[in-house]
Design a protein that fits this description.
single chain; 67 residues; mainly alpha; 4 helices; 60% helix
Length: 67
Amino acid sequence: MDIGTVIKERRALLGISQQDLADFSGVGISTIKDLERGVGNPSMKTLKKILDVVGLEMVLQVKQTVK
């Protein structure tokens, strides 16, 4: 599942609109719409603002390669 789908489902669970999410996070509505459609490529800073509003956190992992 991609991050846009996760955000959309979480937003729906919380009962907030895309406009509400944009207002609460300080991110443009077009960024929210693009992200949920899977065509957005937000910066880490922008993504963190959105995730903070919906109560999610970002965890980064570095893949290990086998030699």
